[in-house]
Amino acid sequence: MPQSLGYELIGDTQLGRWLKEKLLQLAKQERINVEYGDTGRASGYYVPSTHTIRLSSSHASADEECMVFLHEVIHAFRHAKGFKYTRERRDDAEVIVEGTAFMVAAFYGLEVDNYSFTYIAS
Q: From which domain of life does this come (predicted)?
């Protein structure tokens, strides 16, 4: 689950807002519930038992919210494909998910290098 890092993704780009809308459409299509609210120290998280993504209501920017949302959608898709996380494998899963989120964001041109690299390094 992405946690608040020392680095925030500041951009509030049209691309980030567009990609977030596409992610909302995808979540609806895949019957993934999306809600906003208190997420504790995390920026967002996925709850497998209810197929729900919960996003913090206080992101630094639209681009950061988009990136956290993308990260959690990838968790939801991996879970739907049968990937289960054990405590020992959680760190590996986070690297795989954030790496995938980085590649998707880069494909669309969303500049998230420092954000993703900082998250993976943590």
A: Bacteria
